[in-house]
Amino acid sequence: MDSIVLALDVMGGDFGPLILVPAIKRALNVYADLNLIVYGNESLVLPMLRDFGLDKDLRLDFRHTALVAEQNANPLTILRNGGQTSLYKAIEAVGKKEAQGAVSLGNTGALVALANHLIGNIAGVHRSALVQVLPSFNSLGTVFLDLGANIRVTPEILHQYGVMGSILAKSVVGISNPKVALLNIGTEPTKGPELLREAMELYLQDKITNFIGFVEGNDLFTGKADVIVTDAFSGNIALKTAEGLYRVLEGQLGKKQGKFALFLHPVKRFIKKRIGLMQPDAYNGSVLLGLDGVVIKSHASANHKAYASAIAQAYDEVKHHIPERIAEGLTHIQGSW
Fold first, then answer.
1. For position 25, which CATH number holds?
2. Is the domain of 118 the same as that of 155?
């Protein structure tokens, strides 16, 4: 059985090793073929590895790093001077082919810059994109991109996002013929900025991608499209809005309702079960799609379950050979024009 090797930056995020080491234990228990290279400060991480019995696990290779890439640090500063940070080393391991994937809760801008510099894109990819598979009430899930990598895009980039997202939907989500759409302010072909209309024309020339046109923000969770494409500015706002709504609903459902609580309990239980599909921890982790390797960005506020979910996503991306399939898919698309 071939092993899958992932590099983990355990110094990032709001809680650092405190929540990341339990997630590592959980991942190693689930995946027998998983090996980990763990980067972090030995004075903080090694005691926790011992507490969880991981210091003797032969599938875990711990490597000391003296520095941490701070969340508010300038990405260019980390790119130039962050060679001894856990974030830099984890991504470098993928670039050097020591690991097939990396996971970090660190600074998003720095992660994107380091990944582009140390790993590089698949041949032919204009820009990599941050992607999440969102839960859906009527489908297996919705691939949503870009969520934070590129604010400035071109029609060609938006078209390529759809191609890459379609490959991810087929390979990981299990959708045989994914429906691809562009996020817009209306569904009519004349709506929205010229950028989107030009991107639509590229999709219409593409004889392979199953393009269905424009969708609006209220279709993120309906399953109307299996892949929804937008720029990083709009995508990040849409995702944070959805997550914020979940937190509000979750908080309201947890409040007592006085003398009517007994009667409202069955209703609350049903609603909570439905919105539970939107639990952010269950789909934590954005893949930086388009790289010649796998890199997952986890939420900085992730708990151990959410970080374990990000590790699982990295494992799946490697297991399904996503970078290789994207390279092959782009070749087929270009040949169909």
1. 3.40.718.10
2. no
Structure token digits, residue 242: 């959805």
Number of neighbours of residue 58 by Cβ within 10 angstroms: 6
Structure confidence at residue 96 (pLDDT): 96
Which among 229, 252, 275 is the end of a domain? 252
- For residue 167, being part of any structural domain is answered with yes
- Whether residue 14 is preceded by a cis peptide bond, meaning omega within 30 degrees of 0, is no
Full residue range of the structural domain in which residue 241 is found: 132-252
Residue 270 lies in a domain: no
- Read off the tokens for 153: 């895009």
Cβ burial of 157 (10 Å; 0-12, 13-18, 19+) is buried
For residue 229, list its beta bridge partners: 145, 182
pLDDT tens string 175-233 = 999 999 999 999 999 999 999 999 999 999 988 899 999 999 999 888 899 999 999 99
For the chain, the domain total comes to 2
Which of the two residues, 58 and 334, has the higher pLDDT score? 58
Residue 268 lies in a domain: no
Write the DSSP assignment of 195-250 as a string of letters: HHHHHHHHHHH-SSSEEEEEE-GGGTTTSS-SEEE--HHHHHHHHHHHHHHHHHHH
Find the range with the poorest average confidence among 76-80, 113-117, 242-246, 281-285: 281-285
In this structure, the answer to whether residues 84 and 62 fall within a common structural domain is yes
| Helix ranges (DSSP H) in 82-193 | 86-95, 108-118, 155-168
Instruction: Kindly report which listed range (10-19, 114-123, 141-150) carries the lowest average pLDDT score.
Output: 10-19
pTM, rounded to two decimals: 0.83
Do 202 and 221 lie in a common domain? Answer: yes
